Amino acid sequence: MDRFNAMRVFTRIVELGGFAKAADSLQIPRASVTILIKQLESHLGVQLLQRTTRQISLTLDGAAYYPRCVRLLADLEETEAVFSAARHNPKGLLRVDMPAGIGRLVVIPALPQFTARYPLIEVEIGLNDRPVDLIREGVDCVLRGGASLDDSLVARPLVMLDQVTCASPDYLQRHDTPQGLADLAGHQMVEYVASNGKRYGLEFVVDGQLQPVNLPRHVSVNSADGYLAACEAGYGLVQAPYYHVARRIREGGLIEVLREVPPPGMPLTALYPPHRQLSRRVRVFVDWMIELCAQPGNDFFRDQSAR
Predict the structure, then answer these.
(1) How far apart are CA 191 and CA 199, in angstroms?
(2) Which of 100, 220, 218, 238 has its CA nearest to residue 172?
(3) pTM, to two decimals
(4) Boundaries of each HTH lysR-type domain copy (predicted)?
(5) Best label site of 52, 75, 113, 144, fewest CB within 10 Å?
(6) Rounded distance, CA 124 to CA 128, Å?
């Protein structure tokens, strides 16, 4: 029995929640997965996984064994990379999750730069705004905007995103364009509802202080694209990262307002599990993201000349 291969299969079963999913992920026969786990359990003399017709769960021994496997496999990967060509040309599958807007508007258009530099890395990108369980879902790295971070993950700051307040031309014709916060009486907003149920109104920075403003609303939305669609439909003011509205503003579909009292910046952060900290694939991707965020001409910043 190849113990390292058996450990890799075991960790993938835990991360993906099933034998079949692990087999598909590792591209090996499902029967081989079952045989390797039986051999591993026989070798250790303990049961690692509790199998039922509905789910796979860890036994107490399995729960203790899993983090040790993760560390050993990460150390093995890094050790091999140090003494092989993979140090300079890493290879393998890299699973990254990020908000749909960042992926669609910024990362994927620039991705040919990354794949040309690292042609042996296969990138699998998940686009969504929901929280991701990196361990269970087998994700190597996530990009997230905002200050709410998971303390169990390694966080690497990428950039502070500019945010803007905007509305549709039709809405501003009906309600007039506000020149200051005092003009917001009689206006309305689109409310954003996060996946955890938290509701977001408007926020402004006035003389260095954060000032929240809640206006009446007729529509609440739980997706970033839907949030902007409701704004374009004339339901009120919204606040969003500049990259997400830059094209709409340039094309006239949205109009920026209250530029003198901007929303607070939004930190964009790369997050990954501690055991992936030594992964060469994760490191080169995060380094590339830092380069991308610093490149002139991107839409992370409202005014490129002000950087």
Answers:
(1) 7
(2) 238
(3) 0.68
(4) 1-59
(5) 52
(6) 13
